[in-house]
Structure of NADP-dependent oxidoreductase domain-containing protein:
Amino acid sequence: MKKRQLGTSNLHISEISLGCMSLPPNPAEAEEVIHAAIDAGINYFDTADLYNKGENEKVVGTALKQHRHNIYLASKVGNRWEEGKEGWGWDTSANYINKAVRDSLQRLQTDYLDLYQLHGGTTEDNWEEITDTFESLKKEGLIREYGISSIRPNVFMPFLQNSDAISNMMQFNIFDERASEFFDLIQQTGASVVTRGSIAKGLLTNEWRTRLKPFMSYDEAAANDVLQKIEQQFGDVHAAALAFNLQYPTVASTVIGARTLTQLKQNLDAYEKAQSLQNISEIDKWTKTDRYTEHR
């Protein structure tokens, strides 16, 4: 598995990373998937405190405990919930972030995070306080680096430009290319992009015919047209989807989800095939040049 530098940091993460949100809640089953991912060369694991309200972090922490110093572990903060209450709120205060990171570390059974990401953000947030808090956590040794997970340009660009954040996690795939408008600008700040939603909820796989449905600005007919052309040109839609994301130097890793060993293997097989695909940028001839219309 090839690795890429995450921003300007010393973290060199696998081109394919595991998004832990989709792991099975059963610890033994989740451990199987995580250990198989490690065996395949995946070294970057992404979770969040919000996923199953902390339970996902517990499962991930148990599975990674024996491998902690061989992998990179990322989590997120900002969504605040209370036990026994429905839903959650948004809190980026220094007090809350300081508490939340310690709670995450306890659940993950580790004493540091390699990357701590703000799980969203608004223009009304106190960004100076957020940045100062992340910087203080770095000095304490509780986190190595920090970043953001946002698809709002008027949120992520000022944050990246005015801090030492090294990453932005963004939805990006063949059917949602909106983020690419900002790739060069993000790279100029010294940050990388980690892509999520890379196979468009399973639409960009070799089972696309049984999963065909509208996605983003594509109706079913338009999606069908693009997928047929990809299959005809490249032979493997899943592999083409991963290669499409990884063609961009700004992209450090593309996150895949896997609930089962079979799903993990499908992603890993697609990644191997992606290595030999040529002229992947031709896909842009068949797709739309969509742009973010809000939060600019």
Observations:
- Residues 3-285 form a domain with the TIM Barrel fold (CATH 3.20.20.100).
- The longest strand covers residues 143-149.
- The CA atoms of residues 37 and 109 lie 19 Å apart.
